[in-house]
Amino acid sequence: MTSQVRGVQLARLLGQWHALPGRRRSPDYAALAGAVRGLLADGRLPLGVRLPAERELAEALKISRTTVTAAYRELRESGHLASRRGAGSWTMLPGTHRVASTGLWTPLDDRDMIDLGVAALAAPPELLPAARAAAEDLPRYLGGAGYHPTGIIELREAVSRAYTDRGLPTSPDQIMVTNGTQHALDLVLRLALAPGGNVLVESPSYPNALAALAARRARITTHGLAVEEPGWDADLLLGGLRQARPKLAYLIPDFQNPTGHLMPAALRERVVATAHAVGTDLVVDESFVDLPLDGTVLPPPTASFDRHSRVVTIGGMSKPFWGGLRIGWVRASAPQVQRLAAARVGVDMASPVLDQLVAVHLLTDAPAIVAARRAQLTAQRDALLAALAQRLPEWRVTVPHGGVTLWAELDGPISSALARAAEEVGVRLAPGPRFGLDGTLERFLRLPFTLPAADLVEAVGRIAAVRYDLDRGGRSQWREPTVIA
Prior knowledge:
Blueprint: H1 7-14, H2 28-41, E1 50-51, H3 54-61, H4 65-77, E2 81-84, E3 88-91, E4 97-99, E5 105-107, E6 114-115, H5 127-137, H6 153-165, E7 175-178, H7 181-192, E8 198-203, H8 207-215, E9 219-224, H9 234-244, E10 248-251, H10 265-278, E11 281-285, E12 311-316, E13 328-331, H11 334-344, H12 353-364, H13 366-391, E14 396-397, E15 405-409, H14 415-423, E16 427-428, E17 430-431, E18 444-448, H15 453-472
Helix pairs in contact: 1-3, 2-4, 2-14, 3-4, 5-12, 6-12, 7-8, 7-11, 9-10, 13-15, 14-15
């Protein structure tokens, strides 16, 4: 069944959809059509959703119906909208685009794009030798069916050792291997959150986690993070838990995505104690825990303060190693792992054995691989910071001491408009509203430093040029924007 977005909901998502003062030569209908395409581009408006009737949207935006009619017509002409008399209009995939592996859609001819929409590194050189070694290990598994719902024992032992080395004693029975961290989150939500359940999340937060919660029709309460360290307001966070008493809280305490903040040890302990007192389960995302920079000392794992099986930790190999290696995991109590495995059998049975063997070999070499990654990320982060300071000094950026992203506060609520303009000069951006709810965070932009330094410097130069063009007048023609992944 096709879902529907109401006029007031779409109006909130559109935010300041009008062209900026310097771009007023574009008519309102073109600005509205471009803004809707932008929502489709960054995943805030999904494919197959029915848009509000023209009169309803006109009333919500306080504009003429003629403007909405013209905008819908332009969207139909560009292939972003299909309409049928009596049935309404719904979003669709243009013929010039394809669905990417991320689930978002992307243009067919985007090979020359500098993609700052994805916060992930290319594969390390050690991946190929690890794959060869894994292929040599594979024969001993070929005599069985190949289904291991909790994962092969070698990988569960390697992951449990890593937790133990961080000061969190863990047995292999407490580990379930998944097809990436997002898959781990999805399985945990299936088990721990009934449809319509109340959830506390940070704002901003990881977009795909918000999408997973939306799929469960979760009622989301947000805790706003400050730009400055430490980010979390302890009184507000703990007060939010006590007041909302959510069934579940999803937190990223280690180099939070997208802000890069690191939660202090004292707050971790208080969060766990408060969650236990109000009956909240904590899902702690450790995707970036292996990537401290500048010699930053990590606090104890959040689960180390747990005495009542209230903390479920998810993590994986996408950020420190490679996103193409779809290996993640859940750390929980042994009984919880067994319940997760039982739920998983109805979803995807098990993770590929060969991929798990590759992961075993990479984790064996993890100290050297991760050290090289940290050095690489430090150099790229510093190059990005220097380019921003030179070309966009009005932007406010807190230097992250880990992870892979900068969270920039812009000089105006222009994030979505800037992302659309940057597409025209070959830079893909993830605008701030992508990391929040209902069109907020237009003054912010996530900038990953996972690309080579030269690409980052070039991207900043192009972004700076279109930023100033927004004020000077820009183009009178709207080009079809493409999609971030």
